[in-house]
Amino acid sequence: MSKQKIDLEFEMNTMPGVLYKYVATPDGLAKWFADDAASEDGKVYSFLWHKEISRAIVLDSAENVFIRFRWEEDDEEDYFEFRIERQELTGTYVLHVIDFSEEEESDDVVRLWNFQIDNLKRLLAA
Q1: Domain that includes residue 108, residue range
Q2: pTM of the full predicted structure?
């Protein structure tokens, strides 16, 4: 079964450098994305959720712009990405979350990302 691409857009009330630290560093990701996060080499991240560890490989990144991961167990073409873009018209910054899911799971994946990004927004507002 082929997976479908999900591209979600969230307006963020912060600067790219601050946002990038929350989406691209283990310390930042541990505050909103997972119960804990770590990386020894900056190329493989370990995420802890409810005593279960999942590992993701950093495929590519550009500081203050984007970071792309692939779960170790996923197919080569699947990834999830955080991309920061400036909206020219308003001057605000948007966080794109790009992910892939099976069609029957896409609503659950969207709900999960909405919940996670709400956590991030609350953290940034504090």
Answers
A1: 4-125
A2: 0.92
Distance CA 74, CA 95 (A): 23
Report the pLDDT value the prediction gives residue 126, as an integer from 0 to 100.
61
Domain count, the chain: 1
Nearest to 108 by CA among 37, 6, 26: 6
- For position 88, which CATH number holds? 3.30.530.20
Which residue type is seen at 122? R
| Tokens representing residue 4 in the block | 């479908």
What average pLDDT does this structure show over 102-108?
94
Residue 9 phi, psi dihedral angles, 5° rounding: -125, 130
Residue 53 makes CB contacts below 8 A (sequence gap 6+) with 46, 47
